[in-house]
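thought: fold this chain, then report.
action: predict
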Amino acid sequence: NGYNSYFFSELGVSVNSVETLVFYNKNASYEPSVLEKIKNAEVIFIAGGDQGLYYQYWNATPLGDLLAQIARNKDKVLGGTSAGMMVLGSMLYAPTGTGVISDEALFNPYHFHMSELVFNHFIQIPLLHNMFFDTHFDDRNRTGRLMVFLARAAAEKNTRARAIACNESTVVCIDEKNIATVFGDTPAYPDYAYFLEVNCEDDWKPQTVEAGKPVSWSPAGGNAVISQRLKGNRTGTNRFDLNTWKILVS
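observation:
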């Protein structure tokens, strides 16, 4: 019940009811009562924790199929924090143990902490196709590892992937018109969101993505990945158009 009182009493809006479901194994993803609760919910929020376990418990199950359907149909509000945000991307880093840090990934893109990259995650939202989500971005120095996620997608899948990365005090809300609004206010952390895409230059692919070797990615134009950064605020004046992949200027 870690989030129950927060959602029910502290948001400043009227909430009818809140219930938390905790998964301890994959069997729960087949429980009719679990599926029924999620079908009847108006808002689904996935807590932080371990996205590797989420993938292990939910992939190729009725629950995973239901979450994928909800995301595709956009008929409920769906969101999450930390691992709960990461699991919403169509591409997913789903480690089964210790998460990789940037130095490990950059010096060896197939480091044993990097083994679980899922390029065809069960949640496939057309708008967010070929998309990684990453979290705790600046606080945990995750820029390097996200570059390697994108580099491996380029090398292994011939894909110009994209990514949305958030700092800890930042929220990205996507509306029905595919406009992302960035909220933030906590002064303890820089409240930024990042929107990244692999460049469209002719020689866009990395030069070296091999086990045991540092990643090398230097297109002729000098920009392997284009990053756009937006600061969050309470009023949500900073917005990003996911249809055109450009910052909206008021």
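thought: worth noting. The radius of gyration is 18 Å.
final: tokens above.
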